Amino acid sequence: MPKLYELLSNNVKWSEQMTREDPEFFQRLVHAQSPEYLWIGCSDSRVPANEIVGLLPGEIFVHRNIANLVVHTDFNCMSVLEYSVEVLKVKHVLVVGHYGCGGVRAAISRTSFGLIDNWLYGIKNLYYRNKYRMDSFDNEEDRLNFLCELNVMQQVKNVAHTAVVQRAWERGQPLTIHGWIYSLKDGLAKDLGISIKGLDDLADEYRVVNGLKDG
Ligand code: CO
User: Fold this and answer.
1) Catalytic residue among 20, 31, 72, 98
2) d(CA 62, CA 83)
3) Ligand 1: centre distance to CA 120 (Å)
4) At residue 130, what are phi and psi to the nearest 5 degrees?
5) Helices (H), the chain
6) CA–CA distance, 210 with 215 (Å, rounded to integer)
7) Catalytic: 46?
8) What pTM did the predictor assign?
9) Does the active-site annotation cover 204?
10) For residue 211, what pLDDT band results from cuts at 50, 70 and 90?
């Protein structure tokens, strides 16, 4: 593990290398960013957004929190989403969970860890709502990993159920919400195949623009 002073020294080297490869790189970024992607991922240090998908500074807007949750009363996440969609006009929102997530594990551990209990409460509900399927796994790791996938699926819906996203679709802005899961074991992310790309993909009960489909 590098010492703190080494981080700044690493930073100098990185800046020099970037400038050597592309002398205009930083100058271009000073004026504007135009990322096409918003990454919503876990804070886990093993899941760094840019590195995993090989993107440079300026190419992906990032929001991370414990267990990659999208909670409608979280002003931080909602502000990031609104800014990404309405100002940056990102074309894709990537909700990226990961197997072996400590946040997901904590949520179903029947133990209190403090303030984080409140943050993770939604995952406990998700577990309980799917208890029958969860209990069909005969080992703890598979059960946890399945819940990690279910959690991503729920957060993708939570993104799609916001007024910000639905208003974007209503005005014809191209925007797709994707659910991915990352494996710490091999560094590979996979698409869970649950993308949502328009109002027609939503249950009527969750539509907040344009009234009900039939009415
Ligand atoms: Co995690």
Assistant:
1) 98
2) 12
3) 11
4) -115, 25
5) 4-21, 25-31, 49-53, 75-82, 102-107, 116-129, 131-134, 140-160, 163-170
6) 9
7) yes
8) 0.95
9) no
10) low
